[in-house]
């Protein structure tokens, strides 16, 4: 008798906790179980299989949590086993809400229970009485799995499929041939696929019976797989377990590339944030930079780009530009800006900024000083913050790049000052105003407007008399006149220094 989900959940030795699923849902048959942590695990889980995950890719993304349930149900996944205690303390709320709305079974797996123990139980319970058939199926699947160890896994997989069916061909959308093997009428097959333009189909081409299926990854068709054989044979293979494994392996091959790229970006982003943090930067060794193609001696610079809502697009385009030129770089978001660590004089930043403008994504960019120790990249970041603030205050045109070497005298002096001493002096000047953010905002607008009360009031959207009153309060708190050149200089430099420190 076939194993049911209820039998799995009720197995006492595992201590599984059912969080969603009616008695009717628990009657679902279970043909197998597998652990998948890819971006879209439902695409790699077979029909009537339990999918196990710890939710590594779901953190902070309720929409992705809901989507996992929706697509798992659509693909016939038997249930979701959610491992708690590693990434999530309990099953995410959004995931459970969607599961309960759809009566989709979800159960929690305690931290101390390995997924492999439950999978082994399912496999033992699901053994077919027809051992000969089982052994043959496993042998064929193992043949296909062996392609994963090859340097060109798609070609290896197609070759192994051809030994089973007689002929196989793998297309990219549009008809480009990735690989083909055996007796297979390639042009005729693609012509028929293009003509039909749908999903899985069986048709005759070049004297063979062909079974063709689209291979989807992240909801997008990445391949078309066609198996060709004598009439009646290709269909039997495609709808059977061997062809199902072939399709899942192709998804896995393509996902592995995507995951590799994503993991590389995550590691670069982690190092970038460490380098731009005053505490962690001291712990970063030059050898860690070498892992990403940088030299051990530098010099290195920080660049910041103000991109607004187009930040994701800027990151994508800059990453493409850096990859195409082979330029060592770190790239990511940092306190609302697109941040880069580059090597040398940063000359390519102007070209990359021009490329962005050409793509209809104009930005302002700033480049800090060159440093030769990782811990000093924090100073280069401070330079870039000052430069971006200057570009914004002066209304610089989009596409402008300001380098450290082109700084005004005040910003050059601020960049050269010892951060700890500068912070102490800034606090002496601004501490009386710290509890009055409205006064600080008014003072900054007054200075930005070259002490023109009417212009500053317009910028603040207040009456000039209201601004005069606020400036009077500033004078009371400071005990100094804001019309004094010395006081104006102190306040201007202090507010500019605050920009250098950036978000704390």
Plain-language structure description:
There is one protein chain. This protein is α/β, with parallel strands linked by helices and 504 residues long. The protein folds into four domains: 121 residues, HprK N-terminal domain-like (Udp-n-acetylmuramoylalanyl-d-glutamate--2,6- Diaminopimelate Ligase, Chain: A, domain 1, 3-Layer(aba) Sandwich), CATH 3.40.1390; 125 residues, Beta-Lactamase, CATH 3.30.450; 132 residues, Reverse transcriptase/Diguanylate cyclase domain (Alpha-Beta Plaits, 2-Layer Sandwich); 83 residues, PucR C-terminal helix-turn-helix domain (Arc Repressor Mutant, subunit A, Orthogonal Bundle), CATH 1.10.10. Helix content is 48%, strand content 17%. It contains 20 helices and 15 strands. The strands form three sheets. A five-stranded mixed sheet has the order 1-5-4-3-2, sandwiched between helices. The protein has a five-stranded antiparallel sheet with strand order 7-6-10-9-8. The chain has a five-stranded mixed sheet with strand order 12-13-11-14-15. Helix 6 packs antiparallel against helix 7 and helix 12 packs across helix 13. The longest helix is centred in the middle third of the chain and has 35 residues. The N and C termini lie far apart (63 Å). The relative contact order is 0.06.
């Amino acid at each position: 008798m076939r194993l049911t989900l209820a039998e799995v959940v009720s197995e006492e030795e595992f201590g599984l906790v059912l969080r969603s699923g009616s008695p009717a849902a628990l009657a679902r048959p279970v043909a197998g179980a597998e652990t998948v942590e890819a971006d879209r695990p439902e695409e790699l889980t077979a029909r009537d299989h339990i999918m196990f995950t710890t939710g590594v890719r779901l953190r902070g993304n309720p929409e992705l949590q809901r989507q996992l349930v929706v697509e798992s149900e659509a693909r016939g996944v038997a249930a979701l086993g959610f491992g708690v205690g590693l990434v999530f303390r309990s099953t995410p709320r959004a995931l459970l809400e969607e599961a309960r709305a759809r009566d989709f079974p979800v159960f929690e797996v305690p931290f101390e229970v390995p997924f492999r123990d439950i999978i082994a139980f399912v496999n033992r319970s699901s053994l077919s009485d027809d051992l000969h058939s089982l052994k043959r199926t496993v042998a064929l699947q193992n043949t296909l799995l062996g392609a994963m160890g090859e340097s060109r896994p798609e070609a290896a997989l197609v070759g192994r499929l051809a030994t089973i069916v007689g002929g196989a061909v793998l297309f990219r959308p549009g008809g480009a041939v990735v690989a083909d093997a055996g007796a297979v009428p390639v042009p005729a097959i693609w012509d028929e696929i293009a003509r039909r333009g749908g999903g899985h189909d069986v048709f005759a081409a070049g004297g063979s019976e062909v079974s063709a299926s689209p291979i989807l990854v992240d909801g997008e068709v990445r391949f078309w797989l066609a198996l060709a054989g004598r009439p009646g044979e290709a269909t039997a293979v495609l709808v059977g377990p061997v062809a199902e494994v072939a399709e899942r392996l192709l998804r896995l091959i393509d996902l592995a590339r995507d995951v590799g790229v994503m993991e590389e970006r995550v590691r670069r982003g982690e190092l970038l944030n460490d380098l731009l943090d005053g505490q962690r930067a001291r712990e970063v060794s030059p050898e860690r930079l070498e892992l990403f193609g940088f030299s051990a001696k530098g010099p290195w610079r920080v660049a910041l780009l103000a991109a607004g809502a187009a930040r994701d697009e800027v990151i994508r385009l800059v990453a493409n530009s850096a990859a195409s030129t082979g330029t060592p770089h770190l790239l990511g978001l940092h306190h609302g800006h697109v941040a880069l660590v580059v090597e040398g004089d940063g000359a390519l930043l102007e070209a990359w900024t021009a490329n962005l403008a050409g793509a209809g994504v104009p930005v302002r960019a700033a480049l800090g000083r060159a440093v030769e120790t990782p811990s000093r990249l924090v100073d280069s970041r401070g330079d870039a913050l000052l430069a971006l603030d200057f570009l914004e205050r002066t209304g610089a045109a989009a596409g402008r790049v300001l380098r450290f070497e082109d700084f005004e005298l005040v910003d050059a002096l601020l960049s050269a000052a010892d951060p700890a001493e500068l912070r102490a002096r800034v606090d002496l000047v601004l501490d009386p105003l710290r509890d009055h953010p409205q006064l600080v905002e008014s003072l900054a607008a007054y200075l930005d407007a070259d002490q023109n009360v009417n212009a500053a009031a317009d910028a603040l959207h207040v009456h000039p008399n209201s601004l005069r009153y606020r400036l009077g309060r500033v004078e009371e708190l400071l005990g100094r006149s804001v019309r004094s050149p010395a006081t104006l200089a102190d306040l201007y430099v202090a507010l500019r220094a605050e920009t250098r420190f950036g978000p704390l």
